Amino acid sequence: MTIAEAVDTLMRDGMPLRFTAYDGSSVGPPDSPLGLELTTPRGLAYLMTAPGDLGMARAYVTGDLLLHGVHPGDPYDALVSLQNNLRFRAPNAPEALAVVRALGLGNLRPPPPPPQEAAPRWRRAVEGLRHSKGRDAGMISHHYDVSNRFYELVLGPSMTYTCAVYRTPEDTLEQAQAEKYDLVCRKLDLQPGQRLLDVGCGWGGMVRHAAREYGVHALGVTLSRQQASWAKEAIDREGLGDLAEVRHLDYRDVVESGFDAVSSIGLTEHIGVRNYPAYFAHLRDRLRPEGRLLNHCITRTHNRRQDIGAFLDRYVFPDGELTGSGRIITEAQDAGLEVMHEENLRRHYALTLTGWGRNLRDHWDEAVAEVGEGTARVWGLYMAGSRLAFERNEIQLHQVLATRTTADGRDGFPLRPAW
C-alpha cells in the first residue's frame, strides 16, 4: 500500500484536492488548483504520532508538508477547501492495522517537535501554576517577544494586535485600528485631564491615542519587555511623554487607584477563566466611583470553559482560554460592576485578520529573514485559520462596557449612549 492509498483509505468522500507523497504516489483530482505534498518520512511520522491539527501543524511548520496553490503567508483558500471538503472516517481494526503496517511501524516513534512549539501543559508546571505571575510572563514572552520588526511587518504602522473596527469594508487596516481606539475612548467618555489605565497595553497604541486625541494621562502595562521598549520609544518619538507612560508590569501589580477609566483590549484571553473574579475585582478597585471599564476580548459562542486546541496552545497562545460573553458579563457583575453595554465585533476581526494576512504575504521574504520560515509559517496558518473561525461564527469578539456605580445608584452615564 502506498502512502496515497493509505490516505485515501481514511477519506470518507475521497481526497478533495491533489495529494502527493515522497514515495511517488498521489491521489485526488489531478487538475485541482490546490494541493498537499508530503515531502519527507519525518512529516509522515508527525502525522501518524499526533493525528489531527497538531501533527499537520508540525509537518507544515517544518516544511515536511507543503500547501500548493496558496502563499504560505496567507493559506486561507486552502483552509477553506479543506474545512469544506475534507472528511475523515474511522477505519475498522483490520483496516487500521493494514495502514499502520503499510506506512511503517517505525513511523510511530515521534520525531522531536519543531523549535517553535511550546512544551505541553503538563511540562509547563516547572514554570509555576497555570496563570501564576511567573508562568504567565513566560507564556506572554513566547508569543509577543518574537520580534518587534516582525510585528511591524504584519500589523502595519499602527502596531495594533487586536480587532479593528471597520466603518465600511473599504476602510484600510490603519483607518479601522484608529476607529477601534477612538470607539473605546468614546465609550469611556474620556475627557482632557482624566486618568486612564490600559492593562495589557501591547505596543501602546491605546495609550498614545488617548493621550494624543483626548488629552488624558494614560498609563499602560504589559508583560512583554519588547512591547514596553517599543512603546516607550514611540511615546518619546511622538512627544507624548508628559501624558503617556508604559511600564513592563503585570496588571496585578498596578497599585494606583482612582482612575477615571480602565481599558483592557485583548488581555482577558490570557488570564484564565478561573481568575475572572479576581481580575474584575482588581480593575474595579482601580476605578473611581462612576469610573468606566471597557473589556475587549475574543469569546466563544457559548459560555462553557474550553481550551483553545492543540495547535493554538502549543504554537500561538500557550495557556490561553476562551469563554462566552455571558460569562464575561456575569463575572463583571459579580465583581460589583454595572454592565451598561456589550457589542459583538466578530465580523470586524475577520476583516482585521484579512489585512494582517495580506501584510505577511506582501512582506514574506523580510518576515522570513527576521524570524525564520518556520515561525512565519506558524503565523500564516494561525491567522488564516482564525479568520475562517471568525467568519463562520466559531469564535467572536465582544466589547463589554461597565461602570463602578455608587451605593446610591449614580453611574455617570447619560440616558442614552453618546458614542
Provide a compact summary of the structure.
With 419 residues, the chain is of the alpha/beta class.
Number of domains: 2
CATH class term of the largest domain: Alpha Beta
Question: Number of helix segments?
Answer: 17
Give a count of the beta strands, DSSP E runs of length 2 or more: 13
Bulk shape: elongated
CATH superfamily of the largest domain: Vaccinia Virus protein VP39
Alpha-carbon Rg, integer: 23 Å
**pLDDT below 50 for ≥5 consecutive residues: which ranges?**
none
How far is the N terminus from the C terminus?
A: 65 Å
**Which strand order do you get reading across the main beta sheet?**
7-6-5-8-9-13-12
CATH architecture of the largest domain: 3-Layer(aba) Sandwich
How many strands, what sense, and barrel or not for the largest sheet? 7 strands, mixed
CATH topology of the largest domain: Rossmann fold
- Following the backbone from N to C, one meets helices and strands in this order, namely HEEEHHEHHHHHEHEHEEHHEEHEHEHHHE
Based on secondary structure, the structural category is: alpha/beta
Proportion of residues in helical segments:
40-55%
Beta-strand content: 15-25%
Mean pLDDT across the residues is 92
Keywords: Lipid metabolism, Methyltransferase, S-adenosyl-L-methionine, Transferase
Family: Belongs to the CFA/CMAS family.
Protein name: Methyltransferase domain-containing protein
GO molecular function: methyltransferase activity
Written description of the protein model:
There is one protein chain. The protein is an alpha/beta fold and 419 residues long. The chain has 2 domains: 3-108, no CATH class; 135-403, 3-Layer(aba) Sandwich (Rossmann fold). The protein has 17 helices and 13 strands. The protein has a 7-stranded mixed beta sheet, with helices on both faces. It has a 4-stranded mixed beta sheet with strand order 2-1-3-4. Helix 2 runs antiparallel to helix 3 (53-61), helix 7 packs antiparallel against helix 16 (364-371) and helix 8 (173-187) crosses helix 9.
